[in-house]
């Protein structure tokens, strides 16, 4: 027997920027635009992790192999990684200086009299450069850096969600396999009962009606097997979808529903939810909102435009230097509205973080509740229901052979045993699914708690 445990996923968000190009400056250690490179830096694009195409057929599949397949081939995981690379491109672009502008002006031409043609034209060739003040480049880079960090957390969340769903689907396949096994045992017992009744009827010790009833019970058991086999095939198809296979590419899953019954306290589990990427991401989200505020504040500082060039006078065939300085006068727009909006979004992010924590705590409480219900029900079935049912069936079967009971008593006790065994499997499945959910929320194996 093996316990189904969602393997904890290695952190890929880490510092939130694991895949950042090495040539890109780290804005966390910079204090001014002057520390940034003057020229645009190259963006290093990383290959998408995982595998492409379809996995090969595998006769036996473990939980670890199923989760690994899903993480390697699932398109949602790949898409989340590609978004990280896209954010890195935006990060690199955010720290680039404005391009200089080439200005060409021609005046006093195509007029009348002495201004006709280009004889009196004045031509100006100049270059204009915007000088950003207020460390705007660094502020933009810091904000974009945290955007990329959030994409890392989104990637981590996608991986956890895919792994959790895959593990749950894996439990469904194992449950269906176990139900098929139990129902086949039911068919074997029903056929043995049918043979026993047939012998008693032929010996004149039982009515033919009892034989008919045993035939119905045997046929019903076979019908249940057929239905459960269809359920198993559907569960296997659903599991294969998680790694993009439209047909089932494995024979069976390996493992049995575990015997674990422990339920950690909710207080202990609550202390672990900070490991969940859906909550951990909010530290970077609040930081990003603060960085956006810094961007808006920097926009309130006007930039300076410097221009320099040469003006040619066609009438005298002479030239002179030209210089310009342009500074916006902030009579009307000081970006106050955007600054206020950015400040409010910081406060909103704090509330959103608390809302995310509450939502996660609610999901945890629900999953722990399901775990407790399944564990309690399972314990009752295995200790208080199944043993007496099994004992009653054996005694009834013996009594029937001795002529003390009719076939209805045998069939009823037989059905009660196998229905209880199927209920045990359902309870084990519910327990394992709830356990997978709890482990996904806290990021820990419950076996060590």
Topology, pairings included?
Elements: E1 58-61, H1 63-73, H2 75-94, E2 101-107, E3 122-131, H3 136-202, H4 208-241, E4 250-253, H5 266-270, H6 277-299, E5 304-313, E6 318-326, H7 336-401, H8 407-442
Parallel strand pairs: 1-4
Antiparallel strand pairs: 2-3, 3-5, 5-6
Helix pairs in contact: 1-3, 2-3, 3-4, 3-6, 3-8, 6-7, 7-8
The oligomerization state is single chain
Radius of gyration, CA atoms, in whole angstroms: 37 Å
Low-confidence spans: pLDDT under 50, at least 5 residues? Answer: 1-22
Q: Which sheet architecture does the biggest sheet show?
A: 4 strands, antiparallel
Q: According to CATH, what is the topology of the largest domain? A: Outer membrane efflux proteins (OEP)
CATH superfamily grouping of the largest domain:
Outer membrane efflux proteins (OEP)
What's the structural domain tally?
Answer: 2
Distance between the termini: 20 Å
Query: How confident is the prediction overall: mean pLDDT?
Result: 86
